């Protein structure tokens, strides 16, 4: 919007210590949690975020208040979602009120229309805005990187470091990044293994160690997620929805389904089923996963998964931002 619609006054809420602060012009910034932030939260005609109540001065507090319908705002609430959701109703009007939600793929859209109870017109199959940049980078030469990007765990929200060191999450990640067979393969083929865990797990990143110079352990301040997705050749994840972005780029994805109890517990509430929807092979054993890496074709997904990728992404163009913009503008009419 700043590039193509300068006539629209738009401000960006961000904290001073955010790793992305330098990417936003000072004139566009509202300091997170400031008095002006509170004022604009209540009075702005449009509120946009990648998370429900992400535009609020306190997401946890205002989410709870919103569930009790105690938040009264002037503006329309827009969710330009941060991910492709695999849940049938991971967001619904019972828990979070939105006036518009951008949906990235038809399978998610169909499941949410059937299961959430949102009024007609709230859910819009218009693509995620960030897909534009992915589309522009289709076929771009990659770096010789294997990207390992596991997601977070609710059960580790308040885990101490001592407890985390004894967790299956830590043990399985360490087992993979320190696999000697993998280390030899990286060395012999001029590859790098990049480990970048979810932002909610970054508080434990200093605990991960390796003696291989070909394994890169990155913290949140040293990399931009989108750049890692575009530049890497292969992705390994557990059940992070970021695999949708990587598959959009028509590159191979591998699922490492260790420590899978939270995912299994939510299985009945998901439209996504690994047996018929997965966009790559899955493993629950690090050794078997490494054996697969040693023999796979890193230049493209297997034929089965290429077909599924084509079926999953029915919107494939660089008009996602434009469709989001037009949908948001329609709320003011």
Shape descriptor reads globular
Biggest sheet, in brief? 6 strands, parallel
The whole-angstrom Rg is: 21 Å
Oligomer type:
single chain
Report strand %.
5-15%
CATH topology of the largest domain: Rossmann fold
Helix count equals 14
Structural class: alpha/beta
Report strand order across the widest sheet: 9-8-7-10-11-12
Query: How many β-strands, per DSSP?
Result: 12
Mean pLDDT: 93
Q: Which CATH class of the largest domain applies here?
A: Alpha Beta
**Low-pLDDT residue spans:** none
Q: What's the CATH superfamily of the largest domain, by name?
A: CDP-glycerol glycerophosphotransferase, C-terminal domain
Describe the structure.
The chain is α/β, with parallel strands linked by helices. Helix content is 34%, strand content 13%. It contains 14 helices and 12 strands. The protein has a 6-stranded parallel beta sheet with strand order 9-8-7-10-11-12, with helices on both faces. It has a 4-stranded parallel beta sheet with strand order 3-4-5-6, sandwiched between helices. A two-stranded parallel sheet has the order 1-2. The mean pLDDT is 93.
